[in-house]
Prior knowledge:
- It is built from eight helices and 15 strands.
- It is α+β, with helices and mostly antiparallel strands.
- It has two domains: about 10-65 and about 205-235, 2-Layer Sandwich (Pseudouridine synthase); about 70-200, Pseudouridine synthase (2-Layer Sandwich).
- The strands form three sheets. Strands 1, 2, 3, 4, 7, 10, 11, 12, 13, 14 and 15 form an eleven-stranded mixed beta sheet that branches. Strands 5-6 form a two-stranded antiparallel ribbon.
- The longest helix is centred in the N-terminal third of the chain and has 12 residues, at about 20-30.
- The protein is globular.
- It starts with 8 loop residues before the first strand and ends with a helix.
Amino acid sequence: MHKFNALDGALLIDKPSGPTSHDVVAAIRRRFRVEKVGHCGTLDPQATGLLIIVLGRATKLSEKLMASDKVYEGLIKFGEATDSYDADGEITSSLPVMPMTMEELNEASVSFNGDQMQVPPMVSAVKIGGVPLYKMARKGVEVERKPRLVHVYSFRFMDYQEPLGKFRLACTKGTYVRSVAHELGQKLGCGAHLASLRRTVSGSFDVANALTLAKVLEMSEAELEPHVIPFLRLSTAA
């Protein structure tokens, strides 16, 4: 039987806005000198929230953990569409927002529930021919992308103060929430983009139990160990 050490497991990180998911992996690898470090599901640089970091032998479980369902919360800004479908992109259209209530928004959002074929945005990490789409997009190149089957369990607005709607969305892995925001804007005829995004749940793990990256990087290895979810517990969760 394999003997596991204290750092063979997972860390729940509450990712700040700014660094990429890879930046978080690199910072933890450097700080604790762990040879194998990975993450279970990319968050865009400006997105915050739950990022599951796997260490040591637990990196073998990354694919299984990545396959879990996700829950997101965030803000959608109506009246402005962008080329990246989020706040980082260039504005491609600016239109007046028609008067609408939160109830009317929820009537429109319910149509996104269930199975749907979703085309990955050009500004995304999906690779075609080994090249990430976002690198092609930076050069002004647009290529055909194959639609992917995703499932939205629920998409509801909790607050609306024009032009911002606060929402909660539960979905399968690989769902582009910014694509949902963009398509909702198209459906309503005013355009929209994802203004902010936070992942709150991934599988059985919740951001409420996560540590901030800054806090983790201040810890010694001995202080970190109690926060590592052991490999054997992870393998049953996966």
